[in-house]
Amino acid sequence: DGVNYPLRLIPIYLLLPLHLPLLMCPRFQKRRRRRRKKKKKKKKNADESSSEQTNEEPEAKVLSEEEKQAIADAAAADAVPFNTQDTMVTPATKDEFGDYQCNAAMGLARNVNLSPRDTAQKIVDGLQPLIGNVMEEPEIAGPGFINLKFKEQYLSSALTTMAKSNRLAVPITSNKQRIIVDFSSPNIAKEMHVGHLRSTIIGDTLSNLLTFMGHDVTRLNHVGDWGTQFGMLVEHLRTEFPQALSTETSQDIDLGDLVTLYKAAKQRFDQDEEFKTRARDTVVKLQAGDEESLTAWKSLCQASRNEYDKIYDTLNIKGLTERGESFYNPFLSSVVSDLEEQELAVPTEGAKAVFLDGYTGRDGTPLPIIVQKSDGGFNYASTDLAAIRHRTEFEDGENADRVLYVTDAGQAQHFQMVFEVAKLANFVPKDKKVSLEHVPFGLVQGEDGKKFATRSGDTVKLRDLLDEAVNIAAADIQSREDSTIDKDQLQSVATTVGIGAVKYADLSMNRESNYKFSYARMLSLNGNTAPYMLYSYARICGIVRKATGFDSADENAKMEWPEPAKEVLLTHESEVALVRNLVKLPDILNEVESELYPNRLCDYLFETSQKFNKFYENCAVNNAETPELKASRLTLCTVTASTIKLLMGLLGIEVVERL
């Protein structure tokens, strides 16, 4: 589109002559094979029954132009459109291959009765008139690979467009969706631990990116605020903190360390039979709406919320709406009754469960998904099904088009089964395409590859982990001889670096992999780390300050960025390499929007920083040969800095102008 989207590639199926995509249509191929088979059979029968032989060739029927067009229209109507995978256009695996490569010719060749190279040539013939202003002449390599390379003139104009845009020329989606991202989900009266870290920052990053792309995003925190454990906790409050049971005094009470409170209640529950009986009775009262029990429960929820908010503030998590399990209580009975009416839920050992085809336990017996326990209570599956209905089906719900569940990989089968039940029961509207997606992540491990824990074997508290990262970052900054950070700014910068390092170390890994937690590695200035990216941004700021005469004595002054150059001049191969990387930004964002792997943002950031460093090593900015070349290179610095700042922001990491 030039200005709006300078680097979108045209799908290959639009570049081929008409007959190629039609012949690739599976239904068209099947129909053609069927016709051939009938023709063979008819010929064989004719040969066997005919006594007269003739050497005359049958006259071929000549189709009129109207008949040809009718056949083409029918085939086009029946064709299955190509998708992204069919086009097989991917980033080039090596710089010498250009910017993109297309491998579609090999797959198409057999269906169109051409050699792969001849098929590739037809693709190129259709492609060249459409991309002549953007790409060099496509190159056919090997058996039929097509290499595509941006023209330098196009790169120059694309970078200028990025520099003039407050979105770096990234277009807002034309297919706006209502998207729910379900993440974080701590449990009431329990402290957040390192396992909650991954869900929280992955979910936040995906929410940031989807919002930036133009979608309507709702961030939901599905906290564990309901269940049998609350009878135990409320009964413990009744004797230890009676003020928590009164609406007049519950707001003023400090419950102290909730973890200590939970452990004390659990100890009483395990050791005192009378307390255990009272706790179970309290569960019934709580579920029945007893005022005192509900007041105590609300006190626990608020005390937990206060602690979670401190963590969220430290991690800079914003816009997260709490929607706990208790919210869905009114809908649970109808979930079960609707499943029973459709004969999906059946009795099993006193409980009610759905049995899905293809799911078995370790012993080979059918694996049920229980929706109501034998005591009449509900569980995670019933709550998740109720949540799906509220998020997609109910008129007064969220009416989502896409729902993402960011949880650990251990819950993969649970969500797979829940999604399948929801679709079978029509809890997901059939009249609109709703996507339910589990976004799994692996475990955080210690440097020894074992469970990440304290020396005593306890789970590491998230609060302690974050505080330690900030302390180590502060000590590291103070130890550097070239540090220009004022002592008054030290805490702020150390927080940015320390928290950023924890986030980036997590997000830079493939989310489905386990990763080893190491303060030393994540706070290193070398490699794909947050400190390296922060330093790269601060370095560019320093270059621009020097070039523009920015008053560096005023630490609080707002950074002044130069106006874009009238023309971007590319005089060195390192400049070209950097620009070629920068203009691929929309591709990267679209890829993560679709596939939900934040590590690809980090990979792109690292590659961008490395290419900038090579550019700066080879190309003088402030001492450029001409004023025009200096302005051009400052524009390149500005776009690089803006790209780093944008992507770090999507990762939930603030940048600093001095480090």
What does this structure look like?
This protein is an alpha/beta fold and 659 residues long. The protein has 24 helices and 14 strands. It has helices spanning 12-15, 19-24, 26-49, 65-78, 84-87, 104-112, 116-131, 152-164, 194-212, 229-240, 258-271, 273-288, 291-315, 332-341, 380-393, 412-424, 462-479, 487-507, 519-522, 530-548, 573-582, 585-595, 599-618, 627-650, and strands at 89-91, 100-102, 139-141, 145-148, 178-182, 216-221, 320-322, 345-348, 351-360, 366-372, 402-408, 435-441, 444-445, 515-516. The strands form 4 sheets. The protein has a 5-stranded parallel beta sheet, sandwiched between helices. Strands 1-2-4-3 form a 4-stranded antiparallel beta sheet. A 3-stranded antiparallel beta sheet has the order 8-9-10. It is flat. Residues 1-26 and 51-57 have low confidence and may be disordered.
In short:
The protein is α/β, with parallel strands linked by helices. The chain has 24 helices and 14 strands.
Helix content: 40-55%
Count the beta strands.
14
Global morphology: flat
Strand order of the largest sheet: 7-6-5-11-12
- Calculate the terminal CA-CA distance, rounded to whole Å: 39 Å
Q: Number of helical runs?
A: 24
Summing up helix and strand content along with how strands pair, one would put the structural category as: alpha/beta
